[in-house]
Write a structure and sequence with these properties.
The complex is a heterodimer. By secondary structure, chain A is of the alpha+beta class. Chain A is built from two helices and twelve strands. The relative contact order of chain A is 0.11. By secondary structure, chain B is mainly alpha-helical. Classes of the chains: A alpha+beta, B mainly alpha.
Chain lengths: 173, 186
């Protein structure tokens, strides 16, 4: 006596479907490390918490720089756009800031992206004694390079010496 | 879904226990390959020629029946046992998978929040390590789930094809009708 073999029972199909579902959950649930946003900074207590080339300032690991040394100190490959108040800074959107507290997105008053969001730089407004050597804290909380109006070459080529500090502008007519 | 299947299996088991049919007796496939099969048929046809032959044939017949019953019982008990082993392994795997996924998801969320509010490099690395551990746990759990699920599915399929004790009422009916029609044709 033989018994005919038929198609698999529903429960087997259900078990297979469960396995597929579990596979989907597995793929969905996989942890993938996402790099931190460029503008974010690691918190620190001491310089030991930061990597080489960084200092612990205002509780954040930051790369020190001056306006004059921006090109060499701030790696543009890392996305640094400016040297702001003594530290390499990233651009940010004022309305949607990804700066790490206590940094904030300080508006540049212009829009540098196609979506029209107001652009700024992540930084901390300066206090009179918080600028690097050769810079002074100008009104508005921005460290500007000091200069001698009798010797304007101390400013960068796209800056002019006005009121004892280098400000954006051109000496060219 | 597993629970539903399990409930279905429990129902099938109770139905199977309630039914003790010829199909169940023949549930484990063809058994015509017994070495004394030709003797049995020969003895039964020779039975009408004398009592001595009939007695001898009865002796021969009784022995293999006992052996077959034992094998059958063993096979019957193995099938549900393996099915439930698969279910238990699968449940353990599912729980492990869920734990791993939970670890990964919570780590990812903490990293996301930390990137927005501030996180030390060491704390972020700890969370990354934890997330990767969650991945390994999830992969391990998924593998165990796959093994357990496969075992349960295979045992269900084997049981189904052999009209074993875990089959549904409908399938049992099919097995019985096939068995009776086969008997009639013999």
């Amino acid at each position: 006596m033989t018994v005919s073999r038929q198609s698999l029972p529903r429960s087997t199909v259900r078990a297979a479907a469960t396995s597929l579902l579990a596979g989907g959950v597995l793929a969905w649930g996989c942890f993938i490390e996402i790099p931190p946003p460029p503008a974010s900074r690691y918190l620190c207590d001491t310089i030991a918490d930061c990597t080489e080339g960084e200092v612990c300032a205002s509780g954040l690991c930051q790369v020190p720089c001056t306006s004059a040394t921006f090109a060499t100190d701030c790696d543009q490959g890392e996305g640094y756009a400016a040297c702001f108040n003594g530290y390499c800074a990233h651009l940010c959107e004022v309305e949607n800031s990804d700066c790490t507290n206590p940094q904030e997105c300080l508006s540049l008053g212009i829009s540098l992206n196609v979506e029209g969001a107001t652009s700024g730089v992540c930084g901390i407004v300066c206090t009179p004694d918080a600028c690097p050597d050769g810079e002074t804290c100008a009104p508005g909380g921005v460290c500007l390079t000091t200069c001698d109006e009798s010797n304007p070459t101390t400013c960068a080529s796209d800056e002019v010496c006005a009121g004892g500090v280098c400000v954006p502008g051109s000496t060219q007519p | 879904m597993f629970l539903q299947t399990t409930r279905h299996k429990l129902l099938s088991l109770s139905i199977a226990a309630a039914l003790s049919t010829g199909c169940t007796a023949n549930a484990w496939g063809p058994r015509t390959s017994h070495p004394h099969a030709h003797l049995l048929s020969g003895a039964s046809s020779a039975g009408s020629f004398g009592l001595g032959i009939e007695q001898a044939s009865a002796d021969i017949e009784r022995e293999p029946r006992a052996t077959d019953g034992g094998d059958e019982d063993r096979e019957r008990s193995i099938s549900p046992a393996l099915f439930w082993t698969g279910v238990i392994i699968g449940a353990v795997g599912l729980a492990t998978l869920a734990t791993g996924v939970g670890i990964g998801v919570s780590s990812a969320k903490k990293i996301e929040d930390g990137d927005a509010t501030g996180l030390s490099r060491a704390a972020r690395q700890d969370l990354v390590d934890r997330g990767e551990l969650g991945n390994r746990v999830a992969i391990g759990g998924g593998s165990v789930l796959f093994v357990g699920g496969s075992l349960a599915a295979i045992m269900t399929a084997v049981d189904y094809s052999r009209c074993g004790p875990m089959i549904s009422k409908k399938r049992r009916g099919e097995c019985e009708s096939t068995g009776s029609s086969a008997s009639k044709s013999e």
